[in-house]
Amino acid sequence: MISTRFVPLLVLVLFLIFGCAPAVREGAHVEKEQAVQKLPVEQQKEKANEEFAKVLEIVEKVENRSDAVPEMEKRYTNIIENYPDAPLAQEIHWRLVELYLRDYNPPRIEDAKAVFSRFKERYPQSPLKTAIEDTMTRFFAAKGMWNEILELHDYRIRKFVETGSIDSPLFLFMYAEALRNLGNKEEAIKGYNWVIKTFPGTQPADMARRRLELMKNSKKD
Description:
- By secondary structure, the protein is mainly α.
- It has ten helices and no strands.
- It folds into two domains: 41-143, Alpha Horseshoe (Serine Threonine Protein Phosphatase 5, Tetratricopeptide repeat); 144-221, Serine Threonine Protein Phosphatase 5, Tetratricopeptide repeat (Alpha Horseshoe).
- It has helices at 7-37, 41-61, 65-82, 87-103, 109-122, 128-142, 146-163, 169-181, 185-198, 203-220.
- The protein is elongated and about 65 Å long.
- The termini are far apart.
- Residues 1-36 have low confidence and may be disordered.
């Protein structure tokens, strides 16, 4: 016969064994279900292409593009959430960033940043990363959002300082522009000179040279 002093302990042990088991089994079931729900890459590719084709149809049917924007956002989001392994998904991240920045009034800047952040996590080696950064850089410059440009390209400029290599003269020029507009003219001048030295004969180098001339003339005045 089991002593009464051991009954509470026995009840506790039984509870831990049988009470927790369903939760464990349920968790395993959810994980298994999620694994099953993820489509093979070829099916993701097919589904993503179908969804994008619907976007093109919608845009063609409306008189004003703005009327199609909510549905475009919905379908773009569906592609990147449900078919992330489809080759098209990377481009759709870019298109969604452009949609948030160019087609909404006011622009949905934080949403665009969130999409780009997710893009970088999913596709760190994607060549489209530079294209998205170009889109965001031009938007920030047009809006005078200079701090955002510094933040966007901080890692790139740090790498340039360490290695002397950078993937685009435009990004280096725009970083210098941001510094100048934020009052850091000394560092901006260094940036312009680096553009001229590193990328001679390019349009950003010509723009940097003109900017330095304007800054020099403004000092005389």
